[in-house]
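pasting for the record
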Amino acid sequence: MILPVYLYGHPVLREKAKEVPGDYPALKELVANMFDTMYHAEGVGLAAPQIGRSIRLIVLDGKPMSEDFKECKDFRRVMINPVIEEYSDEEISLEEGCLSLPGIHEKVERAAWIRIKYSDENGVEHNETIEGFAARIVQHECEHLDGLVFIDNISAIRRQLNKGKLNNIIKGTTGCSYKTKAVGK
């Protein structure tokens, strides 16, 4: 089922998400719905707060980026209660966008690689090192779990330059090709 993506300005996007308990009801259905929503919106990652659920759950599929970033070819994951345990010192600046901030793209500095631990939808624990653009996707989505959005990582001047677009998103006047939920809707 395709769910609406909550847009910038919605309070759930600024909450620190809660841990997902092992007995979370209908978890596999929620994961399937999140993938459906992400694919329909042509995204490569989606965090539960972006669909109005303040829980520590993200889904990722980097395959659409695999032509330019080989590490994304088979990068499809469900991450429950992810914790980034280590960031590389090296950072890379690349342009990012976000399904919750349609029409806004800015360069963001991110660690070149990360080490992360998480559980998948079957309760299996993972601890892996992720590099390149795949690491960028994970960092972006993990920030949503802490109540952050990618524009929090850009300069005040760049945020000011996007103020009109941000206000339009909050007002619900930004057009999208996917289902959304604006602040007052």
